[in-house]
Target: Translation initiation factor IF-2
Amino acid sequence: MAKTRVHELAKEFGVESKFVLEKFKEMGEFVKSASSTVELPAEMRFRKEYGDKLKAETPSTPAPAPAAPKPGPKAPKPAPKPEATQAPAAPETPAAAAEAPAAAAAPEAPEAPQAPAAEAPAASTGPRPGPKPAPRPAAKPAAAEPQAPAAQAETPSAPGDAAPKSPAPRPVGRPGAPRPGNNPFAPSQGMGRKPAPGPGADRGPAAPGAGDQRPPRPPAGRDGGAPGRPGMPRPNPAMMPKSPAAFGQGPGGRPAPGGAARPGPGGRGGAPGRGGPGGAPARPGGAPGGFAGRPGGGGRPGGGRPGQRGTTQGAFGRPGGPSRRGRKSKRARRQEFEAMEAPTLGGMRVRKGNGETVRLARGASLTDFADKVGVDAAQLVQMLFHLGEMVTATESVNEAVLDLLGEELNYVVQVVSPEDEDRELLSSFDLEFGEDEGDDSDLSVRPPVVTVMGHVDHGKTRLLDALRSANVGDKEAGGITQHIGAYQVTTDVDGTDRRITFIDTPGHEAFTSMRARGAQATDIAILVVAADDGVMPQTVEALNHAKAAGVPIVVAVNKIDKESADPTKVRGQLSEYGLVPEEYGGDAMFVDVSAKSELNLDKLLEAVVLTADASLDLRANSEQDAQGLVIEAHLDRGRGPVATVLVQRGTLRVGDSIVAGPAYGRVRAMLDEHGENITEADPSRPAMVLGLTATPGAGQTFLVVDDDRMARQIAEKREARERAAMQAKRRVRRTLEDFMASMEKGASQDLNLILKGDVSGSVEALEDALAGLDVGDEVSLRIIDRGVGAITETNVDLAAASDAIIIGFNVRPQGKASEMADKEGVEIRYYSVIYQAIEEIEAALKGLLKPVYEESVLGQAQIRAIFRSSKHGNIAGCMVTSGLIRRNAKVRVIRDGNVIADNLDLASLKREKDDASEVREGFECGLVLKNFQDIKEDDVVESFEMREIPRS
Ligand SMILES: Nc1nc2c(ncn2[C@@H]2O[C@H](COP(=O)(O)OP(=O)(O)OP(=O)(O)O)[C@@H](O)[C@H]2O)c(=O)[nH]1
Model:
């Protein structure tokens, strides 16, 4: 059935195709393009109505017959393609949608513009697209028509124009009408029409207005722009961007003509809205825009079929297309979106970061982490669980775990150093530690603080004592000095009394541990070298520590009273280490002394002062609130916590509120090294402070704050952080089981042990036996300390520092050692039989430490009857008399109190006729024992299992 095509008709009548198209439109027939076919009825009507005239007249008479609205039956054939092109234009307003179709219709008739223009006030509407329509002006005109009809449908304003011009609209208005009739291409057509229907109407009018009111929709513009369309039906929320702006209020502003926007029936503009989907992804402005954009197709980000579905929807007054699909798509989109941002980790979806840095304090918990990145802590817990870490949300975790989380979620985790942490804490109270207040003019000279270091037995202690007592002797004959951790001496240099502060804990360990805490108390180091012994390993070590700290060194060549003393050799040796004596042209002062004979002590003091003057600018503000370091602290039975502090700047006074590490309080009294009460301590002055609530640690800082309350708050926060850090640290300590586990993973390991025993014989025996263990190359056993006697805090300290395990043979912890081990996470294993200790350690070293099991009786059942089965053997009909019988547990058979068979398995366990995994007390059951048929009535079947018990 050869249908006639528009251009054929045009040719036949000698007019342009466009003209024919126009006529069809007026007749209510929608024909897309010149190459579209025309249904026979429509063709006939055309011939009937225009045939004659056309033959006689010219095409110039375009609007002749407004009549012929009845679109009904015949279906013009829509030409989808064209629309696509127009689509772009459509964007601007809902009306656009309406136009679109029209446009489509007119695609090829650019020349025919006059016609459209003429007829349609609607045309005016058409123009509105003006702003963006760039695409094709020609189209517009055409569009005018379609809109017109639409307008009439309901638009007040539009009607005005439209109505007059063409009755045709009516039919058109009816969305359904035209479309059903002809077209397989409904979509494209529909599109055009669709607008007409409900929404279209609104829009039509709206559009214009919109054009005015609504601010230009910026970005959306292109495709989104359309969306913004005022009149538009409200886009599906699900597809809408979350921001209000996205809803059109933003850029496009939802100028929506109030209710108008809300499409009426067919309105739900679903159609347009639909476009949304396409736009949805576009997000910003997307939703709304999507709508419009879609008609045009071009606008559609997705590029999906333009207009298609929208049309359909519009036509039917309901969200076109398979609704199912729409809904699904929403969900799918959301999921897609989430999936994009949320990586799956251990089965959990957690929002991922963009490499942002997350600062966390030591010992932070998952909750802290979750708070910082805005996710749910529970998800992190689960995530970690899947990653093999069992951690609760509020538990402190170590840095490795935080790093792991950060890595997985794409965050850079920065664990704040204790110093930074404290700095932040103080600054939250508007305090700052470590800086002198004021300017240069507020600073005054302060005495140097000296630490004595050197090799063992080279005379450090003796020298410190000599210096102290010599000085005391000077001052007050018979005076008794106490060891409070530091003291000050006075010496005469060039006629001036100069003070020097000595930290009287000899050795570089204290010096280093203080430095490790970020506290550098020492200005100058005195390196003691015994002249008869020369430079020894610890001499070099001390030298390196001092150098590393950038502390000037004064060498005390000691024991020169001894005959074997060879001070020159010492100078030579130290020169090799870069410490060149002044007399050799270097800058280090060497003083030959004798601590024993108290020889040249004053020269040594002078050398210290001169070195300080030469290389250091030791000044401090003595007027500010005091700040300094805790040198040592202990709990005094009568006086409570006592701390020796070294004031570094400011002046500490009795009555000051201070916070020292996690301790705080008000200075109740201060004592100097002579036990004398003092009321204030200026820079470099050591003082024993009474009045703290707890004993701070050596190397911790102290500072005076405004009031007790502030002191307490700072101290409490420090303590909480310390606790959290400790907890986190504890998690990484090693236990024998951990060691075994890591062995299983094939990692090469060192197992550090500290042995403590009741007598030296057992410790030696244990050590020898352990040394003789053959555990292969990949494991190494190191006994880092051994000793006789109780396990002390020192042992725990060492174990904590070196990740060691303490083996206690017939000994127990002393004092607070146990508590400390618990706090530090140090494992202490107790044994009283040597071979047991050896066995376990060997097993651990070989990765064979087996779990210990204990039997746990689950319950008993009494055999009440026995059924013989050729297939199953003897089936025992039982009554569970206590507990339960479990199918997979072991059983034993007890007859008259004697176990007649043990460790049996059940071949089957049934409750009634069904297999049961367990049967509880009070119920009957049938069971068959595997490989044991010798059962009798009244026998007792006991169910038990082996449970692993945690090792002590
Ligand atoms: N003859 C002589 N002996 C000294 C002198 N100084 C220290 N001694 C002796 O050397 C030994 C070690 O002295 P200490 O002061 O304990 O040495 P140290 O460096 O403190 O030793 P450690 O505390 O073990 O590191 C003691 O017996 C002192 O009496 C000295 O100037 N002359």
Residues 239 and 280 are 5 Å apart (CA to CA). The mean pLDDT is 69. Residues 708-732 form the longest helix (25 residues). The chain is about 40% helix and 20% strand.
